[in-house]
Amino acid sequence: MKLVKAIIKPERFEFVKKALEDKGFKGMTISEVRGRGEQKGIALEYRGGLMTVDLLPKIQIEIVVKATELDDLISTIMESAKTGKIGDGKIFVMPVEKAIRIRTGETEI
Fold first, then answer.
1. 86 neighbors 95 (Cβ within 8 angstroms)
2. pLDDT tens digits, residue range 90-100?
3. Distance of alpha carbon 28 from its chain centroid, rounded?
4. Into how many domains does the chain fold?
5. For a tag on the chain, would you pick the N or C end, based on fewer CB atoms within 10 A?
């Protein structure tokens, strides 16, 4: 199994969520996070002066999938989150050794 963390623009979240649901990926954990990457933030004009906002709001999506579903999940996220502009986000993939359902004690390896 794999843990996929996708960090995307907040305005793309509904598109990503719908695309994931359409492909059968229903379970996910969502967090509102702040971060920056290559763009190093943005400069805004505020009360006549420039203000740099270097930590931008993002949405982090976490999904655990079987290794056989990984490529489909990644391509779905990429297609639905992409705007073609800097700051579209990043996807991280990590191994998961075991998942245990608290209610039943059922284990997936």
1. no
2. 999 999 999 99
3. 10
4. 1
5. C
Query: Which domain range does residue 16 map to?
Result: 2-108
First to last CA, the chain: 7
The pTM of this model reads: 0.85
Instruction: Provide the 10 A C-beta neighbour count for residue 50.
Output: 8
Tokens of 22: 């359409």
Rounded to 5°, the CA angle 72-74-79 comes to: 95
Classify 80 as helix, strand or coil. Answer: helix
Alpha-carbon distance of 78 to 63, in angstroms, equals 14
Identify the residue whose tokens are 């993939």. 93
Per-residue pLDDT tens over the stretch 4-26: 999 999 999 999 999 999 999 99
